[in-house]
Amino acid sequence: QRQFLRQLLADLEPDVESFSFLQVLKIVKVLGDRYTEFHHAKLDLMRRHLISLEETRGTGRVRLPHFYSTRNDADSWDLIERQDYLRDIGILDDSSRDSLLIIPNYVYTQTNCAADSPLFMTCYQDECGRAMKQIEEEIAAPSATPSVLVSVVQFVRTSTVEHPRILSSGLTRRLDIIASLHNGVVPIHGRLFSQWLHHAFPRECVYPYAAGSKFYRDSDHWSDENKKDIDYTEDELDDLLRVWNREEASYVVRRPVAEGLVSPMWTMTEELVDDDAWNIEKARREHAASIGGRGRQREHWIYPVVRIFATMIA
């Protein structure tokens, strides 16, 4: 950060040792703009580093021995957080014998944000959010059928996923399962679709835990509760790595699970942004389906009336 600031001053006001008030205002404005880019570049470097350590290519998961063993690399951050801390805040995949670090859950965690003030933080730019924006713009609706989603998602491009691509039969089948819960459509702002996106874009999209199952706590609160620092000491890490190295010979690389998923981490817990609005929409669809074509002719006015009524009695 000091090097970044020195470079900024050299670019804006070279050979100046003291600054006027107007010069300081100019520097602060440019600092705010450039620091976001600077912080993003650092986090992007760390993300690429973690991707290079993937246990199985394309799964977005890293074995903890590999995560910790590169902690002193010049181009990586201090990757030394305790395993139990990472588990508590939802960073680890514990679905099999050996815990794996979930790359997007780690990169996007608040721990890796720069706290510029109590009201503002600079975090990694959400690449999954950009993918979701592409989906929203193409669908232009709160839900879509599985076939429509497949036709859209296969053309979504990210920094690690080229398009077009053919989605696995396992992934498309999961969309059908989600749609079976919602009268044949998939709510794109629900937890199940977010979970599906994680398996479709495991390097970009976080795994969404069900509400209440994981709680983010900053380092101070976690340390106070657990009576220890969130980071391992060098000696603790050295001891851990020695144990892991002895077990390395018997380790079996885990392959992606059946059904096209990158991990067994899949639950059928659904959570919607607006349950009430979705239930109204669901009732509208059921009503239209029950009365056939006549219902389709009327649906343009039935839905607003039902929604207004629900608002009045809420």
List the main descriptive attributes of the protein structure presented here:
single chain; 314 residues; mainly alpha; three-stranded antiparallel β-sheet; two-stranded antiparallel ribbon; disordered C terminus
* Shape call: globular
Helix count, DSSP H or I runs of 4 or more residues: 13
Strand order of the largest sheet: 1-3-2
Ranges where pLDDT stays below 50 over 5 or more residues in a row are 293-314
Count of extended strands: 7
Secondary-structure element sequence?
HHEHHEEHEEHEHHEHHHHH
What portion of the residues fall into strands of 2 or more residues? 5-15%
The profile of the biggest β sheet is: 3 strands, antiparallel
Instruction: Name the average pLDDT.
Output: 82
- How many whole angstroms does the radius of gyration measure? 24 Å
N- to C-terminal distance: 51 Å
Instruction: State the share of residues found in helices, binned by percent.
Output: 40-55%
Structure classification = mainly alpha
